[in-house]
Amino acid sequence: xxxxxxxxxxxxxxxxxxxxxxxxxxxxxxxxxxxxxxxxxxxxxxxxxxxxxxxxxxxxxxxxxxxxxxxxxxxxxxxxxxxxxxxxxxxxxxxxxxxxxxxxxxxxxxxxxxxxxxxxxxxxxxxxxxxxxxxxxxxxxxxxxxxxxxxxxxxxxxxxxxxxxxxxxxxxxxxxxxxxxxxxxxxxxxxxxxxxxxxxxxxxxxxxxxxxxxxxxxxxxxxxxxxxxxxxxxxxxxxxxxxxxxxxxxxxxxxxxxxxxxxxxxxxxxxxxxxxxxxxxxxxxxxxxxxxxxxxxxxxxxxxxxxxxxxxxxxxxxxxxxxxxxxxxxxxxxxxxxxxxxxxxxxxxxxxxxxxxxxxxxxxxxxxxxxxxxxxxxxxxxxxxxxxxxxxxx
Length: 394
Known about the structure:
The protein is an alpha+beta fold. 53% of the residues lie in helices and 18% in strands. A hairpin with a 4-residue loop joins strand 4 (261-269) and strand 5. The longest helix has 50 residues, at 109-158.
């Protein structure tokens, strides 16, 4: 029995061309030739009986024979190919068997196709394995980078002023410090000097890690700038401009970098009832009895190659009319794209927020402004770091 199955399997493995040739031979050549031989040897009557019998058998066996011949010629192999394609489609490359016959030595056409599909699946499996390995390595690297950034955020946060001390000096205030990435280039500064305090908001060049590096450099240089100054915000900004340029080698035109910062800086003296502002490409927003007004800073950034080394920043004495609310913000707030028309948040919307919430306690304004900002941003990509410091003084 086994030799019969082996012989049938051998027939199935013939080329399609050979199978079709044999079928055509028996139907076109062998059949008429046999009829001719019968007519020649036994006469018309026997030949007629043979033809009638053959025709009857053909009618009865037409459908089974057609299915069997189709199966022998192509359908069996097509089904095997479809099953093989289904396995490949499901990503099951391991269970696709390699045909044993060597196609290069007269093998079956479908076997050649199945061998090609097998090696195609094998190649895909190898590439998928390499891809999975690369993805695993990438995920491990991503975890390491994420952990490094998280730790870098702790370091950057440690350079920031103590919020509790800020609250002691400015009971009515709120602070938003929201970086676009894990770390960023925005920062704020608070330091006691003389009978008062310096309060500032800074926007350093860049986002992410480069911006964070700049904030660390700036915080280190601020202490030196204050030590060199006389309590004047303008003198602190002037010293910072020089110190940044010298620290980054940007005091010459051929410098390879061009980094710096914008800053809004105030000096507040409660006892004297005095407030002085100076800005480097930054403004101070004032919300008083007459509405919102803007005190603009000088149009010169700190530390950039294009910033003159000897630039003289301007102190502005801020008039105090009872309790006045003041706001300092980096440009990430106004520049954020959003809304139905995809326009910037803008300074006017920020000023309207101040007017609409003039009677709302400062401690509650943080949540309201954050909600307004995030609602306006919607599904748009965050463009920049955002820092806002609002406080009441007078």
